[in-house]
Specification:
It is built from 16 helices and 24 strands. It is α/β, with parallel strands linked by helices. Strands 9-8-10-7-11-12-13-14-15-16 form a 10-stranded mixed β-sheet, with helices on both faces. The protein has a 6-stranded mixed β-sheet with strand order 17-18-22-19-20-21, sandwiched between helices. Bound molecules: ligand UAG, adenosine-5'-triphosphate, 2,6-diaminopimelic acid and magnesium ion (MG). Keywords: ATP-binding, Cell cycle, Cell division, Cell shape, Cell wall biogenesis/degradation, Cytoplasm, Ligase, Magnesium, Nucleotide-binding, Peptidoglycan synthesis. InterPro entries: Mur-like_cat_sf, Mur_ligase_C, Mur_ligase_C_dom_sf, Mur_ligase_cen, Mur_ligase_N, MurE/MurF_N, UDP-N-AcMur-Glu-dNH2Pim_ligase. Its cofactor is Mg(2+).
Length: about 500
Amino acid sequence: MAEQGKSQGKSLGELGLTAQGGRNPFIAGLAVDSREVRKGYLFAALPGTKVHGATFVETALELGAGAILTDAEGARIAADALSRSEAALIVAEDPRQTLAYTAALWFGGQPETMVAVTGTNGKTSVATFARQIWTELGFDAVNLGTTGVEGAYQAPLHHTTPEPITLHRMLAACADAGITHAAMEASSHGLAQRRLDGVQLKAAGFTNFTQDHLDYHATFDDYFHAKAGLFTRVLPEDGVAVVNIDDPRGQDIAELAAERGQRVIRVGRTPLADLQLQGQRFDATGQELRFGFEGKSHLVRLPLIGGFQAENVLLAAGLVIGAGADADRVFETLPHLGTVRGRMQLAATRANGATVFVDFAHTPDAVKTALTALRPHVMGRLVAVVGAGGDRDRTKRPLMGQAAAENADLVIVTDDNPRSEDPAAIRQDVMMGCPDAIEVGDRAEAILRGVDALGPGDALLIAGKGHESGQVVGDVTYPFDDAEQASVAVSALDGGMA
Ligand SMILES: CC(=O)N[C@H]1[C@@H](OP(=O)(O)OP(=O)(O)OC[C@H]2O[C@@H](n3ccc(=O)[nH]c3=O)[C@H](O)[C@@H]2O)O[C@H](CO)[C@@H](O)[C@@H]1O[C@H](C)C(=O)N[C@@H](C)C(=O)N[C@H](CCC(=O)O)C(=O)O
Ligand SMILES: Nc1ncnc2c1ncn2[C@@H]1O[C@H](COP(=O)(O)OP(=O)(O)OP(=O)(O)O)[C@@H](O)[C@H]1O
Ligand SMILES: N[C@H](CCC[C@H](N)C(=O)O)C(=O)O
Ligand SMILES: [Mg+2]
């Protein structure tokens, strides 16, 4: 859509596309949405979850589309409209993948050294740590994903893995701005829809695999295969796979990668790991790690809360090493890593020393992980504020409640982006897993109640929104920031001591 960056236009042939009847028109831009087509554009009419994009070919042609990329079914749907037009028709077996390659060629540039990370939880954290390590090593680096483009080039993103046109526009802008290193998140939606198939990866990472997104993927296996595609399809054979093998599905990924001839760096606590976490000691503000790599032992202090962040850090270190950096130099940077925004972030401290953390845990496993990770840093009781999003996987709600009940001493159930659903009904779903919890719909009030419950040595975990800056109710997004609300609550209760 729009002006499509620096490109002045390219022929279909230059974009690696072959049209039926040998037509080779000059293409002025790319669009996946018919409403964004301009004169001379290629319109990718993709099979969708609700409708086939080919339904909109007529509109695209009226707006001046010069070429249509679709699949055989799309060509049938649009046959009538196409027969009355001069537009070139490209029929591809997998038009989403073809679009990804086309977008890569259209925009031309991407940072020289790119890595991607997939998994249910930890993608944003790993991508952010990889960027921080590269920055410490002196490279101009970014991470791209849920929190936007961050680092030496910054821009907002609406998706964790943007569709290929947006993705490659952004990568080209990064490369133009001198960015040489980029770590991106590969969401399961992004992988299933081939959004990053045009990205040239040096290494790819796998964090873990637990329940999420069963609203989109038909089965758990489909969800797994979407993620595995990062290694079986996107990462080339000479790429390096960096895999958490403490996760049982990580072992499957490591095998798939090895079968493709990729070098595998196994990360984990197990003796089978190449980058092995051997010991961890926690204190109020961070942790010390002992780990081994290639016969050497290392001891570093991480200024980070949460045992799982050590797994994420080692995975990030593995990715940076896999992408070509010297291991010892990489390990020297680890004490300088900083908190990832909205992930185990210390948001406020009460006058009595009790602490308030904001975390993005929004799956059953993440709620459990975040709470158990906080435990060793906390002397007293652990309080959790938790809620589940509307218009998302409903089956995870009671499991999130249960994870909170099993791992916190007091649970407060509240709203988290109810979207088009009835907020009270979502809270009921969550409460099924934690019937003894306190229910407080208004999130600001829930945070206030949670902070109020804290005695000396206690800690509060506010789960679910992390870095988010709004509460989505119906079609309206109200400004809302958990970290800010934590400070407000502490000020209100302790008189300006946030
Ligand atoms: C569920 C999902 O992923 N949907 C994506 C999918 O749309 P769809 O298959 O549902 O589209 P559809 O409504 O059936 O329409 C089919 C096609 O017709 C086109 N169309 C539609 C209407 C029209 O007037 N003209 C037109 O051309 C659409 O652009 C689409 O290409 O294909 C579209 C085009 O590639 C994507 O933009 C769209 O992402 C939407 C925006 C989305 O919100 N996706 C979310 C769920 C997502 O991807 N999230 C993940 C991360 C989640 C996480 O980890 O938590 C992410 O990476 O951000
Ligand atoms: N390695 C891990 N294992 C288990 N849970 C984790 C791990 N890393 C992070 N988490 C939990 O998951 C939450 C989200 O972390 P993060 O944002 O890094 O994941 P993500 O995979 O990018 O999520 P999303 O799919 O929403 O983009 C964290 O706030 C934390 O509670
Ligand atoms: N990328 C995730 C984020 C969920 C965060 C949580 N606050 C919610 O709204 O459910 C999703 O869209 O499912
Ligand atoms: Mg993310």
